[in-house]
Amino acid sequence: MPAVLNWLLAPPFLLAATAAVLHARGMRRQRRVTTAARRGALRWRGVAFYAALATLVVALNAPLDDLVDRLFWVHMLQHVLLMMVAAPLLVLAAPWLPIWKGLPLGARKGLGRWYVRSPGWRRVRRVAGWLAAPLVAWILFDVDLLAWHVPALYELTLHHQAVHELEHLSFLLLGVVFWLQVLDSPPLRARLGPSAGVLYVLTAATAAWALAVVLALAPSPLYPTYAELASRPGGLSALADQHLAAGIMWGPGSVPYALFVFVALYRWLATEDETLEGASTHSRAEVERPAAL
């Protein structure tokens, strides 16, 4: 029982539970003013949001989080869950308006006045506008991934909890910013169309693949904390642990990129077919009209 209570009182679960309650309240209010035809979209976005929350709780809570100091591949899995699962699910879920509407009216009015009048928030809006540029988002996403896996910085995350939490926060936030460029998240619209989005995502994936190659081909363990462990769960050697982490980044870490590319290409080709079909129909109509006359 104490272990279960500790799990329920852990910050990841408490934050997820609070977000879930606010989202549920906001969704009830939003359904009242939404047409029946659009309620299906609200339902699947709700499912995506709760899946994102579940992913965050699994990634940041025990038992997974308890193993990151002993197994490098578990730590890599944690990173993949934050950047490549939770972040795109949050963007697809578009929880921004439901959570806002889930707040009490007085809180919304107070926050709204503070947002409009605060000089600090004006600077935040300017920074947010700069971050929303696709090139900036692309650079920050990939640099963030690679920088945190430089051995010196990675070791800091293993020995300082505050740095570790900063790493997780940057993975999640920059992951959301990255996926917002190619996925609609009402009221926000994707900045890039399907063709540009495919190029954007594929080139971003090369950073993760490069990291996986470095980890897989390194002749010795790159991270002293893992290399100096006397033993590891499962009896893995430090090098085997590192190779498994490379596999996590290369395999499961590539799945969201691949899914986006396949769906974007399908939609792009479908749009091209509809355009060609429409042009063909128009041409036939133009040819048949004089004959009818």
State the main characteristics.
single chain; globular; 293 residues
Question: Could you explain how this protein is built, in words?
Answer:
- By secondary structure, the chain is mainly α.
- The protein has one domain (2-292).
- It has helices at 2-9, 11-32, 36-60, 72-93, 96-102, 105-117, 119-131, 134-148, 151-159, 161-180, 194-217, 224-227, 238-250, 255-292.
- The protein is globular, with a radius of gyration of 23 Å.
- The model has no long low-confidence stretch (mean pLDDT 87).
Please give the structural blueprint.
Blueprint lengths: L1 H8 L1 H22 L3 H25 L11 H22 L2 H7 L2 H13 L1 H13 L2 H15 L2 H9 L1 H20 L13 H24 L6 H4 L10 H13 L4 H38 L1
Helix pairs in contact: 2-3, 2-5, 3-4, 4-10, 4-13, 8-10, 8-11, 9-10, 11-13, 11-14
Number of helices: 14
Give the end-to-end Cα distance, rounded to a whole number of Å.
85 Å
Overall morphology = globular
Q: What is the helix/strand order?
A: HHHHHHHHHHHHHH
- The averaged pLDDT comes out at 87
Question: Which secondary-structure class do the elements indicate?
Answer: mainly alpha
Share of helix among residues?
Answer: over 70%
Number of domains as seen in the coordinates: 1
Number of beta strands:
0
Radius of gyration: 23 Å
What are the segments in which pLDDT stays under 50 over at least 5 consecutive residues? none
